[in-house]
Design goal:
Strand content: 5-15%
Number of strands: 12
Shape: globular
Length: about 400
């Protein structure tokens, strides 16, 4: 894991907006329509090369492949890489887990209006109907090869591939095969270890994306208690640690956010109430949302919370969810105040979440995304001047 030894390094959460040419192939794949496989693979390779070049050009030190190789969302893509699952249409709106939660209950009128403009894209549910095993080796190797080829043409400090953490793999899955959900979760973690290990063995950082760890509070409390939620969360961290056991911690990043939907988020669990559990993850870096108005104040959590030896904090200092481009001086301010708490060498500037939650879903315009990443790099340079002056 690279540290900011002589300047503040920059990265982001991983998912970037797909170019239109690639989206056309992905639409055909999702719809089951015919398409030219050779042309698709060439488009994918070229698109990854271009997005890596663009990241390097705007000043991102630790880029990703944009998740361009995933044909569905960051959490559902595992359906194409794991055996044992079957997809079925969600029967009614009330059965849709993406339309439940404390935030949606309190702001029902707002969400009714939002859903009318942005239809909830999840209309299928995933049911485990057989033994789970990892089957995505060929697809992952393709992504690794494309990424390596792209990185060979640019200069970066490191590189990472984002994948789903065990708790966030196919969220809201249903179980019709294993004796209980505990067995199901353990089977998923064991299968996904193959993916995690392949990425590390290829020489990349692996980032475990885990929106579900924090978002579950909104779904669980009420009717459950906060104690119920903390017990659940602690168990998820145990499962995560089991999945990465034996892998080098300094090659693993753990990303936590409160979901990407554009809502009030007043029912988000406070970071200060769960940071002790999150820090039990045996990883080299924590990538934590921190730039939006609901969570920016939580930089103060690090006055008391302590990173482990050699660990890095990658705070969100750029929001993915607003078209307003942060001023570099604000970015620098966010970085400096954290650097003074955890050490300048232990901070890498990042983003709150991915700019594209799926191949066709984005929060900002592509031109705005690149302007934000430019602002991130510019802010990191300003912070470096202050911290190393």
């Amino acid at each position: 894991m690279k540290h900011s030894t002589d300047r503040i390094l920059t990265t982001h959460v991983g998912s970037l907006i797909r170019p239109p040419a690639l989206q056309e192939f992905l639409r055909a794949r999702q719809a089951g329509k015919p398409y030219d496989e050779t042309a698709y693979q060439k488009c994918l390779t070229d698109s990854v090369a271009e997005v890596v070049r663009q990241q390097a050009d705007v000043g991102i030190d630790v880029p990703s492949d944009g998740e361009f190789g995933k044909s569905i969302s960051w959490a559902q893509y595992a359906l194409t890489r794991l055996s044992g699952f079957q997809r079925r249409p969600i029967k009614t709106e009330t059965d849709n887990p993406f339309k439940r939660g404390a935030d949606r209950t309190r702001f029902a009128e707002f969400y009714a209006e939002l859903d009318a403009k942005e239809t909830v894209s999840t209309t299928m549910e995933a049911i485990c109907v057989g033994p789970i095993a990892y089957t995505g080796q060929a697809e992952l190797k393709r992504d690794i090869d494309n990424f390596k080829a792209a990185l060979a043409k640019v200069k970066t400090e490191d590189a990472f591939l984002p994948v789903a953490a065990p708790a966030s793999v196919i969220p809201d899955r249903k179980n019709e095969y294993y004796k209980n959900d505990e067995e199901l979760q353990v089977a998923i973690a064991a299968a996904m270890r193959t993916e995690y290990k392949m990425i590390v063995d290829a020489g990349f950082l692996v980032q475990l994306d885990d929106a579900r760890s924090a978002v579950t509070y909104d779904r669980m409390v009420p009717p459950g208690s906060f104690a119920d939620y903390k017990t659940w969360l602690a168990h998820q961290i145990d499962i995560l640690n089991h999945a990465i056991e034996g892998l080098p911690a300094d090659r693993i990043r753990y990303h936590v956010c409160w979901g990407s939907w554009p809502g009030p988020h007043v029912s988000d669990v406070p970071l200060k109430d769960i940071v002790d559990i999150l820090l039990r993850a045996k990883v080299g870096a924590f990538v934590i949302e921190g730039a939006n108005p609901r969570h920016e104040h939580e930089w103060q959590v690090w006055k008391n919370a302590k990173l482990g030896g050699g660990q890095v904090l990658i705070p969100g200092v750029i929001s993915h969810a607003t078209n307003v481009v942060e001023h570099p001086e604000l970015v620098a301010e966010r970085i400096v105040r954290l650097a003074k708490l955890v050490g300048r060498e232990n901070v890498i500037g990042g983003t709150d979440c991915g700019f594209a939650q799926g191949p066709f879903y984005r929060r900002v315009h592509p031109s705005v995304m690149w302007a934000k990443l430019e602002a991130l790099a510019a802010g990191a340079r300003l912070a470096s001047k202050e911290l190393w002056s």
